[in-house]
Amino acid sequence: MATAVETLAPPATQSGIWSWITTIDHKRIGALYAITGFIFFLVGGVEALLIRAQLAVPNGDVIDPELFNQLFGVHALTMIFLAVMPMGAGFFNYMIPLMIGARDVAFPRLNALSYWIFLGGALLLTSSFIFGGAPDAGWFAYAPLTSEQFSPGRNMDFYVLGILMLGVSSMAAALNFAVTIINMRAPGMSLLRMPVFVWMTLIISALLILALPPLTVALLQLLFDRHYETSFLSPGGGGDPLLWQHLFWVFGHPEVYILILPAMGIVSETLPVFSRKPLFGYSAIVFSGMAIAFLGWAVWSHHMYTTGLGPVQKSIFAGTTMTIGVPTGIKIFNWLATMYGGSIRFTTSMYFAVAFIALFTIGGISGVMHASPPIDTQQQDTYWIVAHIHYVLVGGALMGIFSGIYYWFPKMTGRFLGEGLGQVHFWLMFIGINLTFFPMHFLGTAGMPRRIYTYDSGMGWDFWNMVATIGALVIGVSLLVFIANFFRAMGQKPTAPNNPWDAATLEWATTSPPPEHDFDLIPIVRGRDPLWFDRDHGHAPAAAPDSAVHIHLPPPSYYPMMMAVGVLLLAVGPMTHLVLTAFGAVVIAYSVWGWALEPTD
Amino acid sequence: MAQASAVEHHPTSTGTDNRKLLWWIFLGSECLFFGSLLATYLIFKGSLAIPPFPTDRIVDAAALVGVSDAAREACHSIGNNLFECEGILDVPVTSQSTFVLLMSSVTMVLAVYGAQNNRLKMMKLWLLATMLLGLAFLGYQVFEFTTFGNEGLNLSSNQFGASFFMLTGFHGTHVAVGVLYLGSLLFASFRRSGLGPEAGFHIESAGLYWHFVDVVWIVLFTVLYLIPA
A374, A458, B43, B48 — which has fewest CB within 10 A? Predict the structure, then answer.
């Protein structure tokens, strides 16, 4: 075996675009995910700014209604599928193998495939703006508005095929991370010694693996309705539009936990480190995460209170929805208890983590409010719901992600993001978020409906809409500060030591940034906070082996990229010509064959 | 397993091979996929208004307005403005194809046995047999779909047609992918290096998928064909 390794050793050069295309290194794929996700985050942000510009004053005419409809749908799709999920995936990719003491994920090439299919799906979805119009029926795409009769353009085809591709990508990634976490842990790392971020990733993987199939079926039904003459969802042909809502929200509600649990995992890492205290109630947080994931399956119909479910069903779903607040509350109190009595360092990462708790709590409380069907009936389709979702996703998920960015940046790049600019970024963003989204509560209670492209003066909505638009601009400025901070940091020399924050988890046991093989020696885990345990019990880090020892890594591969091109062709076919689908299938078959025969040892 | 020592792998936390764990979790996800399709079928089954119907049913004349001639032929008047429509499902024929698919699981087991015990001729023979049985099942399905089409059932005829063809069609696609999967393994086994030292593992993985597709069919056959309306 050893002789075979020599001939198949990865190329010496580790730079150039070809090395990125063929890379199967989880750290590079993580970086690709994170950067792509951030770019799409900016795209989604521009979409949001256009929406806010249109709504700033009554009877605004910045954009026309057709474009407005496209923008609010694509803004949601971009932020959910192309920004927050991939930025979370960036952390999974980069950090999970390091945190569990592994040299890579279980299936490195599958990991690359996930990224390339994601990129293809993201480009397909976004390219709709150029090719005849973006999806304009909201991210939930309620039937029968999406049928060929009511959406005759290609807009909704981009939706169906883009989301199908993104689903395939997420599925491949979730399978990969589930196996990696279950099977690739370093010696001594039992399940209940895993960092909470790893736990949350495992739970998210389980959610994706089980939630994506119903969405896939719903999308296929829509695709067949639009192109192959079925009428699953059109009442005209005997179909049932509520079928779409059920299948969509059976995916859609677990999806919101897929978006928020990474942030919960991240702050469960940063809060203890910057409080210099082990996480309070580790088991309670882990089991609360599982309870949230489990209950997340039993709450989907709270999106459908106004569809005439009947009193018994409404009561049950109201009960489960309120119940899900309990494990969430347990987590919040455990984070507070982690900080209590700690010796807190107020770094930028810590600011974001604390703001996460505060803002997520506001979003959580407004969520429990509309768990009640009579209240929800009043709030349905008003800006109150917009306020809720943005407090949870921007105040929650995004603040958590920024806490992670400031925390792990030295590990990923060897450089520190500036604390001064970081504070400016934090305060601008914190103020901007509250300025944008808190007034939406008032607008919602004043009866302003979602998704309207303009409104008349004299409804009592003028002032708060202007405030929200100003807030959105402040968020935009804060992101410019962050981008400046990023480029400033990247221009500096890498000076970060292995463990600059005195953190407890294994990713800090290797160099910053880590070598391609992650660890010279696979670490041995003796406790829940391994590095603190070893420090306090006098275990010196194992001596690095002789540098001449060759650590075998699988060679780079271009098959993942090739197969993703095949999947893209497969998806474009139904919109253009089925010849492309057939050609895509051939490319996929060829890639599978080459992939299977490619030596990896 | 006998072949486990032939190729050394990194030890895993659970002791199970990563690839096998991946297969199992993936099949768990597939359950939700077929579950959602089956749920769709069952939802519409209760509210079918126009023929063709899966099983015999009596309807009034209003239900026959606008249906295709082929579907109308299966309905005859029993007076009182009522019509009895013949069910379209042919349980005896589909029982045959079900038997064929079940037998393919037996031959698959024999192929896995051959691969794991290094009896390569036996492995190739039974792989071929499994493929042929899979192809026979697909042949039955083509026959069934064609017959149904002639009797007026298609994707747009009614909700039964849409959900039936979508459900069994995706199952058939899974069988077809399985045949290609087994075919590529069979093809690869004729190379000089054969399937390599992990032949047993590769065939076993394919078998896992094959048996799963078979089990799904048992559920579908029971729910679609055997449980009466």
Answer: A458
pLDDT tens digits, one per residue of A239-250: 999 999 999 999
User: Which range of residues forms the domain containing residue B214?
Assistant: 21-45+90-226
What is d(CA A218, CA A212) in angstroms, rounded to the nearest whole number? Answer: 10
Chosen for mutation from B12, B26, B32 (greatest number of chain A CBs closer than 10 Å) is B32
Residue B181 within a domain: yes
Identify whether B133 is part of a domain.
yes
Place of tokens 């083509």: B142
**Separation between Cα atoms, residue A241 and residue A144, nearest integer Å:** 6
At A23-64, the pLDDT tens digits run 999 999 999 999 999 999 999 999 999 999 999 999 999 999
- Cβ contact A182–B14 (<8 Å): yes
- When divided into structural domains, chain B yields a total of 1
Distance of CA A194 to the CA centre of its chain: 21
Query: How far B22 CA sits from the closest chain A CA (Å)?
Result: 6
pLDDT tens sequence across A339-364? 999 999 999 999 999 999 999 999 99
Q: Compute CA distances B157 → A84, A433, B143, B151, whole Å.
A: 42, 52, 19, 11
Q: Is A16 left (phi over 0), alpha (psi -120 to 50) or beta?
A: left
A514: left (phi over 0), alpha (psi -120 to 50) or beta: beta
Residue B11 lies in a domain: no
Do residue B162 and residue A230 have CB atoms under 8 angstroms apart? yes
Average pLDDT over chain A reads: 92
Question: Does the residue B129 lie in any domain?
Answer: yes
A99 neighbors A505 (Cβ within 8 angstroms)? yes
Contacts of A239 in chain B (CB under 8 A): 159
- Look up the CATH number of the domain holding residue B97: 1.20.120.80
Q: Which H or E run includes B60?
A: strand B57-60
